[in-house]
TrEMBL record:
It catalyses: N(1)-methylguanosine(37) in tRNA(Phe) + pyruvate + S-adenosyl-L-methionine = 4-demethylwyosine(37) in tRNA(Phe) + 5'-deoxyadenosine + L-methionine + CO2 + H2O. Residues 124-294 form the Flavodoxin-like domain. Pathway: tRNA modification; wybutosine-tRNA(Phe) biosynthesis. Keywords: 4Fe-4S, Iron, Iron-sulfur, Lyase, Metal-binding, S-adenosyl-L-methionine, tRNA processing. This is tRNA 4-demethylwyosine synthase (AdoMet-dependent). The gene is g8. The keyword Transport does not apply. It is an enzyme of class 4 (lyase). Pfam families: Flavodoxin_1 (PF00258), Radical_SAM (PF04055), Wyosine_form (PF08608). Residues 304-325 are annotated as: Disordered. Belongs to the TYW1 family.
């Protein structure tokens, strides 16, 4: 034994082959002389460094490369360096320690920047877990469906889509699939799908989730080692009888899996996580999800990436950041642009027929950089004129030319500009509803699904400059239409396209619900209230007809400054006028109208609304701005209601946007009323209305938006409020009787207003959870009364 030790222990042998010099001698020598030796070595090192520095020859350290080095790398080399060289992990056994082989792993880059080889086929792997075999059966059926469609997909996309594979999570080694993408014999790009039932007991699901978590946190492995997958999506099964909602654990593991996969793939969520109740709607929900998956696979096969909005293939759209400023719809106005000053330079257009000529003219000439004076079209008065027309064909400008600062400002704020004067934008409630975080007040009050609602305007221009406009930047203002007029077909197609494009961009956003996403791909409502004045657009009636032909409801908000257009307006589902003040002075201060006869126009609009009240659902919208239009104005508003007799009065606290427009107008947070202040006002208004013998009552509320609805008792049947709309009936009436047809708002009154939306119950959508900006759940607390003075 001693012999073996001597042979194997280097400390016991001869030193580096020099006979006679023992290792012990060297150690002793070292101990005797180590201090002078170390000092000498240090002096030598310092001297060498000083010498090199003085000669200016200090080379960058190889261990710590300088940043500038990396910038000199060619683009190509950069791309190559970004390829993930993921280490394979082997285990010495099921319980043995993990060992990593392989090189340095770099952060993955977005897929669109990585070369995608279209000659490589695409393959789908379906993973499932199942304890009581239901999911297993579904997975196998789904495999058969996907296998059948693979051939069709290959044919449609011109890309080889291989037969999919299915894997029971209990049978596979996770290392083979989830540390890096699985090996494919055909060298295929892979797409992962998961069908996962949730279990609050220990199952293979827990092992998988733990594995994914460990992989993500393992410092030796890239945090996103599955980034080279084409995409992934999860469908969860649960049981609503035992776990009624997500807060109680419904489908909780599917959501968790979705989160880990998002991290491991660098957010390659190809489709929102779907959820199905095994005792309820699971077939329907699964079919919807599967349909969406089919479309995504086709897209990815064609293009090699997931498409816009999904990280890894386009710009990620995370809506949280936008939520702060992007508040609600409503007629919103911009700071006046230079165009506002272009007055009096040209003749008025005498009749609407001239618009066609304007359009033709503009089509033939470059309009954007024209120096000629624009044509003023007074759309505030209709009718044939006897005035002689000049013969000179004018050059007409575009309202929002592509190269204008207005265009840049609006697109930066998220608007898609359609043609030259229309816009579409996804409102924050649409995003919120897609994520199950609540819908806008129109869901509570009228049954509008926010995720199926398109917010648009055919006229970005307006004739007011309201102080509470929450869109910042510049936009055209004016009392006359003096721009090119785009045809309604073009606007209609353009706004739909812009809306759907933005909806699709939300596909990869965390928390988007599969069923809502699928529903969102069918617009059902249109809020014509984005910015500008929709009835300013000369072809508004044709545009409305197009919406209605596709059974899209119309909520049109106008600013009560265009009586002629209001009178000529055909059927809309709900017609609003903004009532921003109760008297002339207040209106001037708050709306800052451009028309000199603004008060007369305003009053005429109320009279028109009164006439229309048995044809249209008419609404007064009051926006309360503390210090401007609230105090002591209840009586004034009651008089306006008496004049217009609208079906509904919507009262809403202003939302402060902090723009220059608002601060220039002296607006600050202190002008935003508390909900209890809005409640106090509404109570006061209701009382005044009752005192005048007007039969209105407080019907519903959406406390989250500081919004309360007063309704005419025409909409109270047997003591129950019916503020919701029967949209199908509206279209039936319209199709049967035409846009001038004879019917009343009561004819398309919907079911009773749901209990939760009634005044006193808050109006929170019970399907959804309220969350704060970080996604944490928050309680719905409604304060309807002024807090006691000592609580301030
Ligand atoms: C013990 C047990 C625990 C469960 N826990 C949950 C749960 O936490 N959340 C949920 O949504 N469903 C839960 N479920 C319901 C199952 O997810 C559901 O029945 C599923 O369809 C089972 O799929 P399988 O037959 O493929 O195993 C549970 C079911 C059982 C039997
Ligand atoms: S009505 Fe439509 S556009 Fe307006 S806030 Fe609601 S969801 Fe948004």
């Amino acid at each position: 034994m001693a012999g073996v030790c001597q042979k194997t222990d280097p400390l016991q042998g001869s030193f580096r082959g020099r006979p006679g010099v023992k290792f012990d001698d060297v150690v002793e020598l070292w101990h005797e002389n180590r201090t002078p030796l170390i000092l000498c070595a240090l002096v030598l090192l310092a001297a060498t460094r000083v010498y090199i520095r003085n000669k200016g020859e200090l080379k960058p350290s190889k261990a710590l490369p300088k940043e500038s080095q990396s910038t000199s790398v060619t683009e190509d080399a950069k791309r190559r360096s970004n390829v993930v060289i993921t280490g394979r992990i082997n285990t010495t056994g099921p319980d043995g320690p993990r060992r990593i082989k392989g090189g340095v792993v770099k952060k993955p880059v977005a897929e669109d920047k990585v070369y995608h080889d279209k000659s490589r086929p695409v393959k789908v792997l379906i993973f499932f877990s199942s304890v009581t075999t239901k999911t297993e059966k579904i997975a196998k059926q789904y495999l058969a469906t996907l296998s059948r469609s693979a051939a069709q997909l290959s044919q449609d996309t011109g890309r080889r889509v291989l037969k999919p594979e299915v894997h029971d999570l209990a049978d596979i080694d996770f290392e083979d699939f989830f540390v890096s993408p699985a090996k494919s014999a055909e060298n295929a790009y892979l797409f992962y799908l998961f069908l996962l039932p949730s279990y609050n007991i220990d199952t293979i699901n827990d092992t998988l989730l733990q594995h994914l978590e460990e992989t993500h946190h393992d410092f030796r492995i890239d945090t996103a080692p599955l980034a080279s997958l084409l995409g992934y999506s999860v469908f969860g099964f649960g049981d609503k009888e035992g776990w009624p909602d997500e807060a109680e654990g419904y489908c909780f593991q599917a959501k968790e899996l979705d989160r880990w996969m998002s991290k491991l793939t660098a957010r390659k969520r190809a489709y929102p996580v779907g959820m199905g109740d095994m005792r309820g709607n699971h077939v329907e929900r699964f079919d919807e999800w599967a349909l969406g998956i089919q479309e995504v696979i086709a897209h990815v096969a064609r293009n090699g990436s997931l498409g816009e909005g999904v990280p890894g293939s386009g710009d990620a759209v995370e809506s949280d950041g936008e939520d702060v400023v992007d508040e609600d719809d409503g007629e919103v106005l911009f700071e006046d642009e230079a165009s506002g000053g272009e007055k009096g330079s040209s003749r008025p257009l005498d009749d609407v027929e001239d618009l066609g000529r304007m359009l033709r003219t503009s089509a033939n000439k470059p309009s954007t950089n024209s120096k000629k004076a624009p044509l003023a079209v007074d759309f505030t008065s209709y009718g044939w004129s006897t005035k002689k027309r000049t013969q000179v064909a004018p050059v007409i400008k575009e309202m929002v030319a592509k190269n204008s600062p207005t265009y840049a400002a609006l697109t930066k704020q998220g608007y898609s500009i359609v043609g030259s004067h229309s816009g579409v934008k996804i409102c924050r409630w649409t995003k919120s509803a897609l994520r199950g975080r609540g819908s806008c007040y129109k869901y509570s009050l009228y049954g509008i699904n926010s995720h199926q609602c398109m917010e648009t305007t055919p006229s970005l221009s307006c004739s007011n400059k309201c102080v509470f406009c929450w869109r910042h930047g510049t936009n055209p203002v004016g009392t006359t239409w003096r721009w090119v007029v785009d045809p309604p077909e073009m606007i209609f197609e353009g706004v739909k396209e812009g809306h759907y494009k933005k909806i699709r961009m939300l596909r990869g956003v965390p928390g988007v619900r599969a069923e809502r996403y699928a529903e969102a791909l069918k617009i059902r409502h249109c809020a014509l209230s984005l910015v500008g004045e929709p009835i300013f657009y000369p072809h508004i009636n044709e545009f409305l007809a197009m919406l209605h032909a596709e059974r899209i409801s119309s909520f049109l908000v106008c600013n009560a400054q265009h009586p002629d257009q209001l009178a000529a307006l055909k059927a809309v589902t709900q017609l609003y006028v903004s009532i921003d003040a109760s008297n002339k002075d207040s209106l001037r201060k708050i709306d800052r109208p451009l028309h000199r006869d603004f008060w007369e126009r305003f009053q005429t609009c109320l009279d028109i609304l009164r006439e229309k009240r048995f044809r249209h659902r008419t609404v007064f919208r009051l926006t309360l701005v503390k210090g401007f239009n609230v105090e002591d104005e209840a009586e004034g508003y009651a008089q306006l209601v008496e004049r217009g007799l609208p079906c509904f009065v919507e009262v809403k606290g202003v939302t402060y946007c902090g723009t220059s427009t608002s601060s220039n107008a002296g607006l600050s947070m202190s002008n935003v009323p508390f909900y209890w202040e809005v409640c106090e006002f509404v109570n006061a208004l209701e009382k005044r209305l009752k005192d005048k013998g007007l039969r209105y009552g407080i019907a519903a509320e959406h406390a989250h938006s500081c919004c309360i609805l007063l309704a005419s008792e025409r909409f109270s049947v047997n003591g129950r409020w019916h503020t919701h709309i029967d949209y199908t009936k509206f279209f039936e009436l319209l199709e049967e009787r035409g846009p001038d047809g004879d019917w009343t708002p009561e004819d398309y009154m919907g079911e009773p207003t749901p209990e939760w939306a009634l005044w006193g119950n808050g109006g929170f959508d019970p399907r959804d959870a309220r969350v704060d900006r970080k996604g944490r759940k928050i309680e719905n607390v409604v304060v309807r009364e002024a807090p006691p003075p000592d609580s301030w």
